Amino acid sequence: MLQGTFLILAVLHLLCAMAEIGTDIEKAKALLAQGQLVGIPTETVYGLAANALDADAVARIFEVKKRPHFDPLIVHLHDPTAIGLYAREIPDTAREIAKQFWPGPVTIVLPKRAVIPDIVTSGLDTVALRCPAHPLAQELLAAIDFPLAAPSANPFGYVSPTTAQHVNDQLGREIGYILDGGPCAVGLESTIVGFEPGPVIYRRGGLGVEEIERVVGKVGINTILSSNPKAPGQLASHYAPRARLIIGDIDVLLKQFDGRRSGVLTFSRDFNLPYQRVLSKAGSLREAARNLFSALRDFDNMPVDTIIGELVPDEGLGKAINDRLQRAANN
Ligand code: TXA
Ligand code: MG
Prior knowledge:
Elements: H1 2-17, E1 20-22, H2 25-33, E2 38-40, E3 47-51, H3 55-65, E4 74-76, H4 83-86, H5 92-101, E5 106-111, H6 118-121, E6 126-130, H7 135-143, E7 148-149, H8 164-171, E8 177-179, E9 191-195, E10 199-203, H9 209-216, E11 220-221, E12 244-247, H10 250-256, E13 263-266, E14 276-278, H11 285-300, E15 306-309, H12 317-329
Parallel strand pairs: 1-8, 2-8, 4-6, 5-9, 10-11, 12-15, 13-14, 13-15
Antiparallel strand pairs: 2-3, 3-7, 4-7, 5-6, 9-10
Helix pairs in contact: 2-7, 11-12
C-alpha cells in the first residue's frame, strides 16, 4: 500500500516536472509574449526561444542553458525583408545569401541595430540572423510581432536536440511548453556566415559551403578553435555525449576495444554489435546528418564508457558532420 502510494507520488512528480508538448501556436505565442521560454522546432535543431527584444526573457535562456554570457544568440525572423530592422550596413553578398537560402539552414552575422538588446549579442556589435524553414516555426513567427532569440535547446556543451522529447528530457523542468514539429529534417545546426567584408564561414552546418559559393563565389573559412571564439559552437569540446568518444579507423579501433562492450558509431557499415549505431546504411550524408545527434544521445542510455567511431566522407554536409564528431570527441 505504502509502496504503491510512493510509486504514484514519484510518477506524479515526474509528470509535473516535465513540460507540456504540443502543437498549440496560440499557447506558445501567449507564453512568449509574457516573457517566458518555449521550445521550438526548426529544420536544423530544436531551439530554446524567447522574445529577442525582451532582455529579461533572454537572460532566462542563459540561465536555463547554463550558457556563458560571452556566447551570443541567433535571432530568428519570419520575413527575410525584416533584416533591415535589426541589422545595418548589409553587404550585397549577405542579401544574396538571404534571398537564395532563406528560409533555410544558414545564419548571417551583420552589424546590429540598437533595438537588439546587448545580452542577445553578448555585447558584440554584430547580430546573427536566420529565417528558419520549419512550417511550425514559420507559423509561430508569423503570429508574433517580435523576433525570437533561440540557441539550440540543450544544456551548454551537450548534443543539440532534434526531437521535442530530447528537449523535454533535459530542459523540461525549466520550461512550460515545447512545440512539437517532429524530428528535424536537417539535424545539424545552421551554417554561420559573417562578412569581413567578404563572406567568411564561422561554423559549418546544414547548408554546404559549396552551395553558398555557387551564389557568392569563393568564401573564407574561419572556424578556428579558441577559448574566446566568434561562434562558441566552435569550442573544441562541444556536442559531447556522456561516454568518451574516440574517432579513428573503425577496423583498427575494433581490434583495440571490445566491440561488444563499447559504443560503436559507423557511417554505413553494420557490424551487428549490441551497442552500435549506423548513421546511414544507404551511405547518405543527408540521412547521416539527420541521425547524428540522436545517435550520440542514444549512447547515453547504454552501459558503455567508451564509444568508438569513424568520420564520414569529408565532402559537402560530411564536413559539418565531421566537425561535430571531432568536437564531440574532444573531451
Ligand atoms: O541551427 C541553428 O543555428 C540553431 C537553431 C535553433 O536555429 N541554433 C543554434 O544556436 O545552433 P546556438 O546558440 O547553439 O549556436 C549559435 C552560434 C553560437 O556558437 C554563437 O557564438 C554564434 O552562433 N553567434 C551568435 N551571434 C554571433 C555573432 N554576432 N558573431 C559570431 N557568432 C555569433
Ligand atoms: Mg548550440
